[in-house]
Structure formats: C-alpha cells, structure tokens
Amino acid sequence: MPVYVDDVRIPYGRMLMCHMWADTREELHAMADRIGVRRKWFQRPPKASWEHYDICLTKRAQTVRYGAIVTDKYGPSEFVAKQKGDQKMLDRIAHLRARFETPLLL
Q1: Is the dihedral of CA 22, 5, 50, 92 positive or negative?
Q2: Is the peptide bond before 11 cis (omega within 30 degrees of 0)?
Q3: What does the radius of gyration of the chain's CA atoms come to, in whole angstroms?
C-alpha cells in the first residue's frame, strides 16, 4: 500500500502535524481507518492543494510501522508535480534537495 508521510512539523494547538497521502484515495482512506483518523479530517481540492490528511506525529509513527514511505518536506510537491507531469517543478525540487543536502564548508 503506497502511503506517504513527510517529515514536516506543523504546530496545531499543542500538537505537531505532518501530511499523509497515497497514490489512490482508497489507499489513503484505508490507512486513515487503520490508524484511527476520522474521515472528517480528509482534505482535498479546492480547499487543499492535493488529497491528504494532516496527522499528528503519534499517528505518523503508526503509519511508518504499517509500511508508509517517509519523505522530506518536498514530498507533497513532488507527488503533485508527478501527477501533473510538471517536469519544471520536478527539476526545481531536485535542485532544492541538492542545495540543502550539500554540507556547508567552513
């Protein structure tokens, strides 16, 4: 089941949240059901950029135990760019990843 979670930490009240998405809506909802996330938290266009859930870090840990693929903060943008066939955005993401993964020389 290709479900993805990113490594962002977005404050929401006293919790820290990240994103969970999948290749299909069915896979996404199946994981949400499995980890106990209610459907009312499902986000999709036009109110969101893509179909996903914002989940707390405890739920994220569960998704990883169930086999979710961990991505960096660019994972959601990369996913949307792939869906749209936006090579320019994919190239930009690759550039940003390379830029920030390069160690600083002092």
Answers
A1: negative
A2: no
A3: 15
